[in-house]
Each structure stands twice: as C-alpha cells, then as structure tokens.
Amino acid sequence: MALEDIYTELIGEHSRNPENKRHLPHATCALKGHNPSCGDEITLELQIEDGIVKDASFTGVGCAISQASTDIMIDLIRGQKVEKAKELAEKFIGMIKREITDESELEELDEALALQNVSNMPARVKCAVLAWHTLDNALEDEEKK
C-alpha cells in the first residue's frame, strides 16, 4: 500500500469515526471555529488544569478533512502542556503553509502528517487548519485569564 493510500485511509477513518467528537462535560474553555468558505463549523472544548490539556473534544459539522484534522489534533494534544500544544499547532499550520518542510521537525505531528498533502490543494487548506487555529486562539484566551 502506498503511503498516500495509507494517509487517505487514515483521514477517512478519522472523519467517519471521530473518537473525540463529543461534548466535554468538564471543559474549562470552549471556542467556536468557523470556515465561511465551506461552512465547516466546530466547537473545540478543552479541559486545562495546571497548564496541561487534560482532555479535549469537539462538536460541529464539516468536511472529511476538517473533521479528521480536528480528531487527529485532539489525540496529539491530550496530555500535553499548553506550551507544547501551542507549539504543535504552530508546527502543523507551518507544515500546511509550507513554511516548515524539514521532515525531522515535522515527525512529532505523528498522524497529522497525513494532512501534509492538503498544502497542494489551496481550497482545502482552511479546512485542515480550522481546528489548529481554533486551538491556538483558545489557548491564547486561556493565558489571558
């Protein structure tokens, strides 16, 4: 199976069966992200305690790419320090914008690397980064509290 096929399968699996798509009862912050160009709309819920993303989930609607990207992102940030979650968000956005191309630097994005080829589809870039921008904004809001 080609790497591209594995990635396509991974995105399909995360969009069809997003494990993190649910309401988070103990959320300490929630932020809505919206992509007017395609109608994707998510609400990211985070439970942050002692500077750590204890848990996260999302609700909302969107295309396969935005749903998969959100689900994969949550798997990646759960249990991470807030600073690390922000760093991962910046790295992912950098990858999609082609500002970061060094494979070794991108390795820690793990399954999120499956979305790297979205950078070749300008119309889909906003779908892939919606959750990551929402996360970045939510974490900034938390820091201001």
TrEMBL record:
GO biological process: iron-sulfur cluster assembly
NIF system FeS cluster assembly NifU N-terminal domain ranges (all copies): 7-94
Molecular function via GO: iron ion binding; iron-sulfur cluster binding
UniProt signal peptide: none
InterPro entries, sorted: NIF_FeS_clus_asmbl_NifU_N
Annotated CDD domains: IscU_like (cd06664)
Origin: domain of life: Bacteria
Family designation: Belongs to the NifU family.
NCBIfam families according to UniProt: SUF_scaf_2 (TIGR01994)
Name used for this protein in its record: NifU-like protein
Organism: Mitsuokella jalaludinii
Protein encoded by which gene: nifU
